[in-house]
Structures are given as structure tokens and as C-alpha cells.
Amino acid sequence: MARVTRAGLVQCSLSERADAPIAQIKASMQEKHIGLIRQAVDQGAQVVCLQEVFDGPYFCAEQETRWYEATERIPDGPTVQRMCKLARELKAILVVPMYEVDMPGVYYNTAAVIDEHGEYLGKYRKHHIPHCKPGFWEKFYFTPGDLGYPVFDTSAGKIGVYICYDRHFPEGARELGLNGAEIVFNPSATVAGLSEYLWKLEQPAHAVANQFFVGAINRVGREQPWDIGEFYGQSYFCDPRGQIFAQASRDKDEVVVADLDLDLITEVRNTWQFFRDRRPESYTKIAETHAVAR
Fold it and tell me: Which of 27, 145, 276, 278 could form a disulfide with 127 if both were Cys (CB 3.0 to 4.6 A apart)?
């Protein structure tokens, strides 16, 4: 019997100005996303992934300690508990990217994974943290991830997560492939004029090199008062051949729902034996540490 997973991506604009009270922003964005999750499930989605730090703005446009108030514990905080209840109600797997507090002063850019029974399966913490113009001051907010590249075994397939800037690094994508990922979600927040020329290049390349499906998510709109640029949406799915086969618009709240034929992974891997033919013992420079000027 064919293994087909119907998966959904949610791209969304900010529902409040970023200078509104944080609690108000979080409540508003959660309500907006829950409506979009329901739309995806109504279209048959078995698994739904949200965008990076889904219940807030992309606050890395500035460096202000007030945004530390947006953090929550995972899985014990109220948002994950709410999403567990929603997953159980809808009988859908949810990938929920959030701002996590581990201990005072130690914060992560994290995605929680919840199964269709409302059970928390685990989390992925973003590894690669940018700090660059214009307005991507992430090292002020996020500690580099320390949980490796987990893959979650679900009824919809083996799911991995890579977050935004991670996508510029092929090594983690290979780790996810070697760990058995069949679907890799990449929730993002990225603007036109900076990375758009890479948006449909890098992630299909990861899909080809590792022969898995990729679901790439980007938010939409301009976020005031910073207005660092247009978040250009265009969330999409691509297959293990690197072909984009479902895509959202660039300028509106939207869900993308598509069928992923997981049997295609075996078909492609039987044609292109990249895992068989790789030579890890010869890649001597990859794991070397190096000093970084600060």
C-alpha cells in the first residue's frame, strides 16, 4: 500500500503592531494561527507546520530585552499545552516553532513536535544563529541549539526540523537524512532583497542531496514599526528530486496542503545512491573547529 502523507504549511502576517503589549500579540497570533491550522486540517492535513516564532513578530529586527518576556518553557508552558489540546481535538500532528526559555538568561529558537494524540514528542533547537544587517540580530536572543538533529517517528512519517538560517548549512540537513528523516520542515522568517534568490535553491538542493521531502515556510507582510523589508511568503513543498510541487503566494495569509508520496524516497534513493557512495572518512575539514573573530 502506498505511503502518502497529506501535509500542511501555514504562512501568516503579523496581526498586531510589534510595539503592542507582548501578551496581546501572542494571544492574537495564536488565535489567527489556530484558525489557519483548522483550515489545513479541514483540507485533510495530517501534519501541519507553523512559521518561525509563530506567535510573535520577527523581533530580532531590534535588540531589546523586553522580548525575553515572550519566552515559555517547552513542553510545560501554556502555548505547548494549548497546542497539545488542539492536536488531540483535530487528530493532527503539529510542529510549533516558539521562543523557549531553558533557564534565566538562556533562550532558544525552538520547534515543539506534538502527535495527533496530543502527546509532546520532543523539540528541535535552532543550531545556526545569525547576527547581521539588516535587522537580523539573533545572537542577542538565541543560544545555539544543543539537542542535535532529532527525527520524530510519527504516523505521518519520520519528521525532522531545520529552522530558517539553518538552511544555509548542508551539514545539518545531511544529519537529518542520516537520522532517517522523510519530511524536513523549515519554518523561516526572511525578507525580499536579502535571501529571496536562495529561497528556491538551497532547500530543493537539500532535498536532492538527502532524498527527502522539504516543507519550507516563510511569513508574509511588513512588520511595523521596524519595516525591515517584505516577508515574501512563497511557502512550498519540494520532493526528493528537488521539484517544487505546491506553493503559496507571496503576500497573503495562506495554507499550503499537499500529498507527499513517501514511497518516492525509496524510488529516488534506488536511482541515486548518495548515501552509499558518500565518503565521510575523507571529509577531514568538516568537523574541525576554528576560531571565530569576535
Answer: 145
